[in-house]
Amino acid sequence: xxxxxxxxxxxxxxxxxxxxxxxxxxxxxxxxxxxxxxxxxxxxxxxxxxxxxxxxxxxxxxxxxxxxxxxxxxxxxxxxxxxxxxxxxxxxxxxxxxxxxxxxxxxxxxxxxxxxxxxxxxxxxxxxxxxxxxxxxxxxxxxxxxxxxxxxxxxxxxxxxxxxxxxxxxxxxxxxxxxxxxxxxxxxxxxxxxxxxxxxxxxxxxxxxxxxxxxxxxxxxxxxxxxxxxxxxxxxxxxxxxxxxxxxxxxxxxxxxxxxxxxxxxxxxxxxxxxxxxxxxxxxxxxxxxxxxxxxxxxxxxxxxxxxxxxxxxxxxxxxxxxxxxxxxxxxxxxxxxxxxxxxxxxxxxxxxxxxxxxxxxxxxxxxxxxxxxxxxxxxxxxxxxxxxxxxxxxxx
Length: 397
What we know:
single chain; alpha/beta; Aspartate Aminotransferase, domain 1; Aspartate Aminotransferase, domain 2; 2 domains; seven-stranded mixed sheet; three-stranded antiparallel sheet
């Protein structure tokens, strides 16, 4: 019996492999400090849970429109548009079972086999996976490390565009590196998209995970709304990673295509959860504020703890819940050639679990630096402090 050839092109979210390592180490009686997965160990706000139970009791347990129920599409259009200073209508919204489905459906809607799609690398590995699985050419663009974080290498991005390029994936407030575009950088990306007539997927998963200042969106730049699809997820803001609900927001014609893909993929997103998401958007806002406050405290403890380690120097990011320190000096001190060896050594010697740069897209040939990624969303401030003290001992030994 044979399998489809394109399955070989399908990647995975390799951070889950680190989860398996951590689980195995914990099963041997070790207390693991989990910095590896961007999950949240916080409860979903109670008003959302209560709204879900009411919807179930009211019988909202059957099929519903493939594009999503109208009250939720109205609420999401209003909320996303208000926060970005532009107008959206329900026709611009298709509800999805999570944020991730928007990636594959966007690519299905705009890319033919052989077309090229630009994507951030390091970046969320599902971009690369979906482009190649669907027969496209995944063209990476990279970041330049600066004193304040990371900037997109705009010259390399421009040089990567060809007559076959159809789209650009743009993850501002970025996983894994917490990169945040200046307004100037964002405007230059918009100019690249417009001048080359590219579609844009704006992955806004962390748009509202922000500790200072105001988030900005590329869609409010003239010429961008009509060529951009926003990936929206409820997972981060509301601590709902396992609920699987999100949305695609963009031009009406493209959203109709995505809704048609919904019919083929899952019929519809769970009805009673959609009813509860209306409450999430228009109801009590204290839950998300509390989640953000706790994340900010964890960020401060994590930044302080990492910067106390000899060989690590990172700025304090204003968004997401990730830290991406360079560890060249630590690798050299320990005589290691593989960052995976550093990751496993930290797990087995300090009980600290984290991901590496290699978990976020294939490294490019000219990369010479080593990076590791810490997620502080699923670990308490107390355990962050305790775990990073153990890591400091291991790294400095």
